[in-house]
Amino acid sequence: MYILGISALYHDSAAALISDGDIIAAAQEERFTRIKHDWHLPENAVDYCLKEGNITGADLAAVVFYDNPFKTLDRYMKNILAAGADSRDVINRNFDTMFSEKMWIHKKVDTLLGVNSNRKFLVCEHHISHAASAFYPSPYEKAVILTLDGVGEWATTTISIGDKEKIKIKEELRFPHSLGLLYSAFTYFCGFKVNSGDYKFMGLAPYGEPIYEDLIREKLLDIKEDGSFEMCLDYFDYQYGRTMTNKKMEELFGGPRREPESEITKREMDIAASVQKITEDIILRMTRHAKESYGGGIDNLVLAGGVALNCVANGKIKKAAYSKIYGFSPRQVMREVV
Question: What does pTM read for this prediction?
């Protein structure tokens, strides 16, 4: 049985082909178009996967889209209602993608692969897709899965249990409160490109001192013992479809955001150090909560989502595992592999 997975219409479009549970091929569209973070329907990546499997679209039992467009639409519409009269920008920015692209993704797949009444088209919740990409290629039959990113349909963080072929979400944190969006907001504020320059922001942290940590905790975040949190949205504009941060953030940090490609100052280094420290604290709290709540008899932890690419935070989890703080075996802590 051949199944094609597709991720598209947000960032870093990709395709993967599996046969009876084995990965046959996987590729990102940018590798073929040479457009960095290409978000379009991955026609070239799909073609590559089919050729690697020596099959055609007619041989596919199913095509699975990585996101549930109807649930994403639900968030989109409720976000518009919450924004009220201030919703014009979010409508202008996302209307076409939402209504002319994602909602008709099954038609676009038929155009790409040819109409086939025997082939199923399925959608998967965003965080299940992330969790699957970490858990199924891992060597574990059972594991706790922590997924952290910007936002899926509604979820921004989930704790799941992977048990053989099944994955079940146990807890989730929802938009607009998001560790990924918080990190992206500061990436933007420090002059780097969101969904592209986040690794630069992480790499900047060792050059600074976390002198803004207390300020961020006091003004921007209410962090709970289990790692869940609420953000003070007065300082952010992503919920309105505009820039990531606004004038209040500039006032809080004593000046406007750094202009891209301009000189990096001590302020940006210290902001990066502060945000990195808070990110690590939140992830470690979540890891401890996941172990205490769902890790009885489970020694394995896998991580997924964009925030799980924070290698420094991963190192802190591994160090905590070595010291037996959170109970997961140090050899059994994995990050997302796809």
Answer: 0.89
